[in-house]
Amino acid sequence: MSRIGVFVCHCGLNIAKTVRVSELAEFAATLPDVVVAKDYKFMCSTPGQEMIQHDIKQYNLDRVIVTACSPLMHEKTFRKVIENAGLNQYLLTIVNIREQVSWVTTDIEEGTAKSKALLNGAVYRARLLAPLTSRVIDVNPDVMVIGAGIAGIQAALELANTGKKVYLVEKNSTIGGHMAQFDKTFPTLDCSACILTPKMDNVLQHKNITMLTYCEVSGVKGYVGNFDITIKQKARYVDHSKCNACLACTEKCPGKGVSEWDEALVKRKSIYIPFPQAVPQKPIIDRESCTFFKKGKCRLCEKVCEQKAIDFEQQDTFIDVKVGAIIVATGFDLMDTKPLVQYGYGKYPGVYNSLEVERLFNSAGPTSGKVTMRDGKEPQSIAILHCIGSRDKNHHEHCSRVCCMYSLKFAHLFKEKTSADVYQLYIDMRAAGKGYEEFYNRLSEENVKFIRGKGARVTESTEEPGRLIVEAEDTITSKFMKIPVDMVVLSPAIVPRAESKDIGRLLNLSTDKQGFFMERHPKLAPLSTMSEGIFIAGVCQGPKDIPDTVAQALGAAAEALTIVVNDKMELEATTAMVNPASCCGCQNCVRVCPYGAPGFNYEKRVSEINEALCKGCGLCASVCPSSAIIARHFTNEQVLAEMEGLMEF
Amino acid sequence: MLKKTAIENISQLAAVLMEKGTLLAPVKEVSCHNFAEISDPQKVDLKFYNTLMSPKSAFFPHREDFVKYKVGKPLSEAEHTILNLKPAFLFGVRPCDVKSFEIMDIHFNAAGIIDPYWRARREATTIFGYAYDINQPVDSADFYNTLGIYAADPEGSDIFMVKKDKELLLKSITPKGEKLLAELSALEKASSGDEKYYEDYIKKGKDYKTRFTCVDSEVIAKKIESIFDNTDFWTKMSAACLSCGICTFSCPNCYCFDICDDTLFGKGTRSRVWDACMFTDFTLEASGHNPRTQVYQRLRQKVSHKYSYHVRKYGVISCVGCGRCTRQCPVNIDIYSIIEAALKA
Amino acid sequence: MTDFKKIEENLKTEAGRLLKEGLVTVVLSYGKGFDENHPMPYAAKTIADVENIVFNQYCNYNMARYLVRYPQGTKIAIAVKAADSRAVIQLIQEEKVKRENLVILGIPVQGMKNPKTGEVIDSKTTCGLYNPVLYDILLGEEVHGQKNALPYEVLAEYEAMDKDARWEFWEKELNKCIRCYACRKACPMCYCDPCFIDQSKPKWADKAPQSPGNMMYHLTRFHHLAGRCIDCGECSRACPVDIPLYLFHKKVAKECEEMFNQKAGMSIEDKPVLVDFRVEDSDKILE
Amino acid sequence: MSFEPKILGIACNWCTYTGADLAGTTRLHYPQNVRVVRVMCSSRINPSFIFRAFQLGADGVLIGGCHPGDCHYNTGNLYARRRLATTKKILEFAGLEPGRLRVEWISASEGNKFAEVVEEFTMQIKNLGPQSKLKIQQ
Question: Both C131 and C159 in a single domain?
């Protein structure tokens, strides 16, 4: 016989509005084994918590049911509460009558009836709960950061400065990310390189950071505190341990590849560093365009290299590292706007996307900072089109957040560097950031033409070949407009990196509809993920500007630190175990477990589960034909009992 | 008293008995006959050799509810099942099966433990024994002769029936049977020819031979005890055994049961459900220990219980040679052959 | 087809040789029962035992059932008919026995009979194959030229039934069950000990032979055998109350073959389909 | 009174349960007939749970898991897909209406899908009427 206490929360009116909470408590009191049932305004408040603790002692409770919000919200809170009152934390059951009842109905009859059924299920389940002991594991003190843009760099530096060893993995041959491509940053217009490159250099110099450029994460095993990561070092064909960065090779190389760094606006050598301030300052060979790889002869670079660092035989290698926590900062791509044929990107040379324009402004860019178009001419009139593919139900519903501001920045820079007329075609001007509205106001005074209306189409002028016509409706005047311009700048939707899907899969991260990584909670745990020990920072979680990205990076570093700062940690006790007396030796569990937790003891002819590897999914329990596997906290009995309770009323 | 009826009119007799109480009689199922409570008198069917399941379920049903209770409510609120029985008629029981009731009485209705459920049913029931048809061949699995039972043994029946061509002769054996038979006006009076036929039939029953081995209960009891440790013997005997429960479930003398508590939506029932010593979990103890994990141990237990322990304790073999276990066994294990082999071992 | 007598002779010869040469310690085949019509599964362990081996039309038992009874590593010779060999393959897949510990004596045969009914056992209640799928020694000539038996033809009638009629059919059939568990005990793939239905934690169903428990037992058992049942029909022949369990198993086997493109017990390289997956499995199977 | 079906929902913690929470957070209204059991992964669902649910009187069973490929445990739902498909075939051949068991992949961000599925499934079960075949008659 259990002694169950039931505590029904009103959550102000959040629950009480559509569930008769006092009736629910009265109902609970009639259920077998329930010795006390109460309702209270805010169960998670201090008086609420104290009431639970008081009643545990007064009524000698051995099970507690909190009927409130989702367990994903407050399970941890109430576990602490009962633990502090001397009860094992796993003897708590949460009944979710807010997210899954009161908030999804307007009918108090329905809401109350469903709450009773759910509560009854919880009572059935609570009776069968068993106290569990959390596992304590050793924690590896190192951290891996995936992606070395500003978010990854900032997080890595922060952690390294606390003395933790950081592996910074970057798929490109240099760190820096998108920020290194920018010229100025809004709203302050400080030079992007000036604020970023010192950090890049810090990374290079930092004794606690192992920089793994031109690398990809190819395998992840283990769990929080003990991740085993396999990293693929892609072949560079240059032995960086020998290379002294003289770059003689890049001068001699006859090969011509497309400069990814300059958004394909120019060519680069086949052996190259992406840009002058690249870190590491050592070249790689682009196999696709290298004359030797294509034609079988050349090897000019090899001839000029005094260090004998060129190695055409180099293969991809694999590096294994162990870390305790992971920060994912894989950043973004711009949406490919070619399929949006109405804007003519890829068809008309005068249509640019925003990153290309960033490079045009950049003094290290293809035009050395002069705004000239693909035909070499300076544009006389420019239209900047906001929200291309974003805030658009046909493509991406989300707002890309930074486009308004960088478009204003572009307008300013165009005004500064050319004499062109600049048009801004926007839906709404979103300038909600520190100093942003001020920046917008400043631009209004810089003779930029603001048209409230989304650019609908870009066509070629029939009268003046080469000139473009931007069609739009000015929604303020309700006038349809055709604006002749030389240059069109598209602000495409910001989307997650194409590769982030693979990373997500490797790390078990959920993604939202747009493919951005899902945070554990949108407000209270914006940097944590559903995978314990894995954190997210920067645009891979959702579009944001540099200040927010840096703030998230710092936050993620702090979150990771909370794990690796301890040498031990507690894990959920909800693992599976085998009852050897019932095991029939079919080895189904061994066959299905994604983590290799069950193993077969050939001597005893039974399966055994290595609890350190078990993540508690319960798959083994459901494939066990003889019900020998006990999925702790979700045992067959507990689930069956809960079902019975749910179906009784 | 001897009465008779045409077999084709058996449903009329059934209808009369149904008016008086509950009638349990053989009915034809897809490929066998079984005793069942009759709701349609036309369903009574005497064209059977013997039923698949023994008639023990008339007194000892597969499941017997004892107590109904509510989870969380005090014991005082629990309801005990009380049997309110109408008179019952168990119709068409073969002599070996009739004999089994007497053996089962030892366990349920004799000094020591009296099972109210068994007793109530037993007392409410009038048994119509039914001689084997001695004009038909005997089934090769039967061996009731070995246990001293014959094809037309009236002993133990209240009324005993023999088949005469297309007629059924009914003879009262006990005062209870006599009283009932007198009340059954639907039946015709038997002629003196019938009387003679009946007497002859009973006599001829002795010559209707099943398999037979001379078994003295004391001798076999001692013998089986002596080979308890002969693992080779038992392993060999049980090599084919699958450990299913059909032999024990169909046996008229197996009486093991399990007490089960089943609850649904807070309402519970405590009941007695047949169990079988051939099941692996039969002897599973709460500690997890199981003294009989091997097939040979379980088969040895079954044979020893019937032919040795039961003799030691109650003086009789707990087997009537009805042949059901042999007939139903999916792998043709034959307890008669085991006994024969044991005697030679 | 090689006649029964000849197969019996071959069986005795091979059993004798294997035991004599010490290649195996036990030969699982068929032996004398209490009369001619009632042979029994038989484990010959000595050369003297070989004389007791018989083979006739009633030797329908699937001897694979007995394989798991012997300690791992025991060298076993086993006589198998077509479906029986599939059971052996399935057990090898499930690592209950090792291929290298087995000498498989294949029996190509047709015209086996059900001793209870005298009916010829054909594709109605079994997989309909005549020749063993896997063997080391064949004890007769392969059966050829027979009309190709289709194991799932028998299902058409039941598949065509209205769902309510089918429910009525199964409810009636499964309610006959007396829970003697002969079906699972005769089944070569039901090697769990304890069976889920014997568990007290949790107690999946009542022990009494009544509808809820019977349903839970049989439906779950059908699931446990999904993709594993090799359609030997032994469950139905063992059943004292003649529940046509083979029908249900056939249906599940057929569905599994269609969904997962793999037939149980055909290759020792396969993995049981329900402890396996393919990323490209279609969501259509859930419709 | 119109027939209000009792539907048992079994949802995986990471996707469908979170998705159901999201439906609440975003105040999407849907019928209150589904009572959800939370399990860690859709692969935890033992087919016998489903048989039992129907025995307990569920008129429908709704199972929710992560989209294939997005399982929090990598491959759990890929096993679940096969196992649940087989369960469905078994129930169907036993004579239960196949529409009474439904499996849906609902991600943590698909609160609206959860609400839609519940709405649709509840309608479907209402049309099918009470489930009496497997329900234990007390």
Answer: no
